[in-house]
Specification:
Layout: E1 9-16, H1 25-28, E2 33-39, E3 44-51, E4 54-61, H2 67-75, E5 78-85, H3 89-98, E6 109-110, E7 116-120, E8 130-134
Parallel strand pairs: 1-4, 5-8
Antiparallel strand pairs: 1-5, 2-3, 3-4, 6-7, 7-8
Bound molecules: cobalt (II) ion (CO).
Length: 137
């Protein structure tokens, strides 16, 4: 028998910055960068700072073509997305699609920490870009 899916939990809040090195306020608050990784599929360098059970993910564009570079150009630095951790990303995407929600990624793509991720369109999230992430077990 298959187990019912677990409810999503907040994994991280993504924050678009011009430079991770210059985003010093989080360390000044006593948070520590636990993990730094380039995520080529999103055109960003990421830095994760754990905050209790969730994380902040600082996103620095790797090139001017990066969607995060375009975001900063248009809206300035700031909150870019929220990420919910799920345990059946394909099931969630199929259900959301069937219910008519607009998706950016119809299929999971590689994310940070070896996770599989997919983004919903901000129109589906009432102006919030929502990332779904599933850990590879
Ligand atoms: Co993210």
């Amino acid at each position: 028998m298959t187990k019912p899916p677990l409810p999503p939990v907040l994994d991280h809040i993504g924050i678009a910055v011009r430079s991770i090195a210059e985003a010093k306020v989080y360390q000044a608050l006593g948070l520590r960068i636990d993990h730094v990784e380039d995520v080529e599929s999103q055109g960003v360098k990421t830095a994760f700072l754990s905050v209790g059970d969730a994380n902040l993910e600082l996103l620095e564009p790797l090139s001017p073509e990066s969607p995060v570079a375009k975001f900063i150009e248009k809206r300035g630095e700031g909150i870019h997305h929220i990420c919910l951790r799920v345990d059946d990303i394909e099931g969630h995407l199929a259900r959301l699609k069937a219910e008519g929600f607009r998706l950016i990624n119809g299929e999971p793509v590689p994310g940070a920490h070896g996770c599989r991720v997919a983004f919903l369109h901000p129109a589906a999230g009432h102006g919030v870009l929502i990332e779904l992430s599933e850990k590879i077990r």
